[in-house]
Amino acid sequence: MERITQKSKVRAHLQSGQSITPIDALERYGCFRLAAIIHTLKNDYGMDIKTELIKNKYGTKYGKYTMVNLSEDEDKVRLLLKVYGYESVEFKYSIGQESRYVRIAYWKPISYQDLEQIHIHSNLQLDEIRIYDDDCGYKYWYNITQKQVNGGNTNESIWNKEL
Description:
By secondary structure, the chain is an alpha+beta fold. Helices cover 32% and strands 27% of the residues.
């Protein structure tokens, strides 16, 4: 008989749509290191898990973890990026905000042709943000916004940049 690990229990818990706190994990699954399990689920299993910091009545902060279900549009963008050969596609929440962004592997760029195809075939707009890091070079991520429909034409090209 195969042993059911704490990691698999927490994973199933999150996939069922429930949130979990360190106290929940300790009481339900005997798990003392929930943050370590969440880290593993995010990095090794690619799960998109949102962390909400909660403050108890004594002022102590702890994490409440919830699995983020990708919208149909985000799922379509993830699939398109995989088809175009991009690995490690991650959808994330901006720190302290409800806005979302997508990044590829370790901050890799998406070609303008692929961005245009995503714009044509989905209801999301990906706006490129890049910064220069002295140690790593340029880092790229893409803010996600719901596409605005102009006069009913959603297939209008928005990428007029030279390649």
